[in-house]
Backbone:
């Protein structure tokens, strides 16, 4: 396949060696992230996904909040390794915090009671789509990223720090920046273990 979209998907990898030397201005990166989220599908066109985009010192602040929270639960003898990992995320140019607005989910449950059990599931699916769309969009402009899940230990501190609405539930974090190291090869399981095709 030579489709450019598939090629971009192939290039998407977790980048743990991030830098601040971005190939685009901050305003363009912001617009790219916003448009990627805006164009994502959602159940009943609910548009429940939310994103907080942190650059520079604000991004570092988030990872320091995560580090503070982790220090309370990680054994002291293991914390240096944990701190090093968190610092690698803070070394990037920024971080996207992905949220799902629970008020939207609850509103849909009330309006469409027959589907009430599905809306929390579909909200999570919408969040995953938004995360992947942003990651792929960043890849398309040679910005490295990875997907992290330090929720819920950092949720309250982040909501307080940036006055994030209480109804927004943190689902994932995506540190991003310049690619400071090459990507390793990715391995795949065999197709017959993963797909069934009938014609």
Residues:
């Amino acid at each position: 396949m030579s489709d450019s979209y598939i090629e971009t998907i192939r290039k998407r990898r977790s980048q743990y060696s991030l830098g601040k030397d971005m190939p685009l201005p901050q305003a363009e990166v912001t617009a790219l992230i916003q448009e990627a989220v805006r164009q994502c599908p959602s159940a009943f066109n609910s548009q429940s996904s939310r994103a907080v985009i942190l650059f520079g010192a604000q991004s570092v602040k988030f990872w320091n909040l995560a580090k503070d929270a982790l220090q309370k639960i990680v054994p002291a003898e293991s914390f240096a390794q944990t701190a090093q990992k968190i610092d690698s995320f803070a070394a990037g140019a920024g971080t996207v915090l992905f949220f799902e607005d629970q008020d939207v989910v609850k509103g849909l449950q009330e309006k469409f009671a027959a589907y009430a059990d599905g809306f929390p599931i579909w909200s999570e699916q919408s969040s995953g789509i938004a995360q992947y769309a942003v990651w792929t969009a960043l890849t398309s402009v040679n910005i490295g990223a990875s997907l992290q899940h330090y929720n819920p230990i950092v949720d309250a501190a982040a909501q307080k720090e940036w006055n994030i609405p209480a109804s927004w539930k943190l689902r994932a974090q995506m540190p991003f920046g310049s690619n400071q190291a090459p990507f390793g090869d990715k391995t795949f399981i065999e197709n017959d273990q993963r797909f069934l095709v009938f014609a």
Observations:
- The CA atoms of residues 96 and 156 lie 17 Å apart.
- The chain has a mean pLDDT of 96.
